[in-house]
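Q: Second attempt. The first request was missing the SMILES, so the protein and pyridoxal-5'-phosphate are both included now.
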Amino acid sequence: MTEIKNRETDRLIAFVRSLYACPTDRIFLHEPLFIGNDKKYVLDAIESTFVSSVGKYVDRFEEMMQEITGAEKAVAVVNGTAALHIALKLVGVAQNDEVLCQPLSFVATTNAISYENAVPHFVDVDEDTMGLSPDALRTRLEQVGEVRDGQCFNKQTGRRIAACVPMHTFGHPVRIEEVVAVCDAYHIPVVEDAAESLGSYYRGRHTGIFGKVGTFSFNGNKTVTSGGGGAIVTNDPELGARAKYITTTAKIPHKWEYRHSEIGYNYRMPNLNAALACAQLEQLERFVADKRETAAAYHGMLAELEGIMAMKEPGESSSNYWLNAVRLADREARDNFLQQTNDAGVITRPIWTLMNKLTMFADCPHGDLSVSEMLEDTIVNIPSSVRLK
Ligand SMILES: *Cc1c(COP(=O)(O)O)cnc(C)c1O
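A: Got both inputs this time. The predicted holo structure:
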């Protein structure tokens, strides 16, 4: 062992252990919690025999998502990545288009762009939100963007810029209205990757409904889970209907005939998973309130520590604090922190490796990414599970 034990890190480790009332066992980053109607609804789905692609829980889940987000239409899908894939299709992303996105994200965002044979185009994030920066976006579009016949093109590559995908990192809302305003000026539709921000609000409105289409994830590590699952939301009834249609094999409705009008997808959320999702959504408000209390406790404690800074919700927003994040001084301090905490059984992990550094996205166009690079070196997530029993 070459690293020196940092006293401040030891104090944080002790604090996490007291916060989670867990003196010795490992404390994970985010564990799911089933304290509501979870078992009841899943059992009910099994007993009904409707465990698969249709059922009352799928319908109920979609209604609940509409109510929670305020979207006109929500469509249940098999996971958040599939939701993103279809959202990009809905706004017209096609082969050889470019899609603006942040390099600091989970790989699903960039993968979904690639599924359409489109090209990710990386734009920097803001230091406080850790999500897409409207200023960096404006600067980049002033450099390379050109509007012709109501569409935006990249002057340098000749490709169309067909969409922009901001992501609300760790549940902290990006300056989404500004992002949408910049995109509107260039006729670029916005798809919001709200996978991490269920229960997060910007200027009083739920994330995911500011752009043309928004997407959510219900993976096991998210704020609430259906095992695996996702949702597409939109205020455009035509896009909503189309989302449902193409995620359910594009079958022309008929009592007995099987006829499909185009190549569709089997991206349905099984009723079994939807049953779990409904029970979990019933707990969303409690879970988010609890997570915000945890964040406040961390902030109070971290204010006393030197060299470990809390990342707090940005202005004009209310974050679900899906994963709490701290910022260290530099990469070396970060690595020492990761070593010391993980050795002590308090699981922490660095923010994602930037997408433009992955081999498959290394040649993609990008603007200045200095804020993303700085955050990549210094941000670490700390345990953030709901503490309710
Ligand atoms: C979780 C997540 C997704 C979707 O993930 P799935 O595992 O496919 O549900 C997409 N984008 C981001 C940023 C995520 O964190």
